[in-house]
Input
Amino acid sequence: MPGEGFLDISIIAPRIQGPRGADRGFIAGRSGAGKSFLAKRLLASYGISESVPKEFRGNLVILDANDTFNYPAEERYETVDEFRLNKKIRAVSYVPKPDQYAAEKWNELWRKLFYFNGPLMVYADETRAMEGVFGNRSFDDGNFFIAYLTRGRAKGKAAILGAQRPVRIPRDIIGQAEWYYVFDLPLKDDRQTMAGTIGELGIANEQNGQPIYRRIDDMNALGRFEFWFKGPDTPIPIKMMVVK
Ligand SMILES: Nc1ncnc2c1ncn2[C@@H]1O[C@H](COP(=O)(O)OP(=O)(O)OP(=O)(O)O)[C@@H](O)[C@H]1O
Ligand SMILES: [Mg+2]
Output
């Protein structure tokens, strides 16, 4: 298949600093599809040391609302008041206590991320946990989740957002991404949401040098741990898999 062979994972990792400004990635798939496994591989591309290429240089923030991602971060915070970023600490995780789920708390967190004085990659393991700050929800001094995703691009504020049910995430949030990773989605409305975003057809295979296309919303097009990948320079999604 076209994505077969060995490639450095950073080739498919969103850039923190680059020609487009900071990138956004979106990972969709049912529970157990392989989203977190892929995310951990992608996150290995980023770091704060001088040896990391500039495109991948920045601090890492893991938003792990369900406490299932288990990233070996150097600091772990459970309330937004305690949450702190330090340029010298590569990765911090935020695993909010139940009383931190209020929309105002999420907005406060995104305010801290937006105003951090340096490049950042924020990974949200389940974006839906933050639905309080979706869409047109307005706050006295602004919606900082939306600000991060829009104005943050020019400030080195990158993000990778994960979702089990993309249909539950507003299309204008999904549409912010230029890097997509779409795993198996058992429900048709989810597959249609992604087909409507990355295109109806993907390249699943190759035969005698000719691409074999499959429909993105075809439930049987992907095998275990396979995903449709589309990057900023990929005109048509390509089927891929990360080898363990
Ligand atoms: N490419 C792969 N090769 C081998 N094993 C994999 C691969 N991707 C995922 N797995 C394994 O499959 C299991 C489920 O994967 P993962 O935790 O990434 O799912 P998920 O999509 O994040 O699910 P959830 O939505 O429930 O968090 C894990 O044990 C993981 O190690
Ligand atoms: Mg997961």
Observations:
- DSSP finds five helices and eleven strands in the chain.
- The longest strand covers residues 157-163.
- The first helix runs from residue 35 to 43.
- Residues 110 and 145 are 5 Å apart (CA to CA).
